[in-house]
């Protein structure tokens, strides 16, 4: 009697990639994480100030009215240049008109300062030399867009740093070692105070210089959420050695 033929052989195989060498120290087991949130608040004073100077002259002769204003305009520009104000930071607007039987020449000079000490020196000099022939408005302080962007970045980085320090202290409390960040999320940002460049100032003329700077100071806060891995217990033996 012939034996039944054996069933065909079946082979099951699964190809797996070669395991990567374990780093030192070994990665934390899955689920060993610390979840924390942190915040920061920073402020930045204004980095620019605009000063407007107005002057005018009314004469019977058109040339006399023009030359009277031109001489003072040149003195203002020269005084600012000698104290390091770039030419592009000065803007002059002129208006010439006839009033009854006279000619009237009016001009406005807007000067942008990044150095507030230079601003005070220039204004004091012009008041001393030109007197009532020139009207100087109180300075208008503001932030450039670059300064605002810098404040936003700095407060976010500060919040992340505070969050990491908090996570590190929590791990140390339980004798653990903080690992790499797994998630960092910016949850909330706030900005208040200060103002971007504007031709209109809401500050009354009675404010002092320091009060104007304080009113124009910008504030920003940021809150972040972060997840860090926990590498494992601290090596107390190595610390003792």
TrEMBL record:
- Its main localization is cytoplasm
Q: Where in the cell is it found?
A: Cytoplasm; Nucleus
Q: Name one GO cellular component term.
A: cytoplasm
Superkingdom of source = Eukaryota
GO biological process: what's one of them?
immune response
Alphabetic keyword roster: Cytoplasm, Nucleus
| Alphabetized InterPro entries for the sequence | IRAK1BP1 (IPR030312), SIMPL/DUF541 (IPR007497)
What is any Pfam family matched here?
SIMPL
- What are the start and end residues of every segment in region (Disordered)? 18-43
Pro residues: which segments have biased composition?
18-28
Question: What family classification does the UniProt entry report for this protein?
Answer: Belongs to the IRAK1BP1 family.
Q: What is this protein called?
A: IKBP1 protein
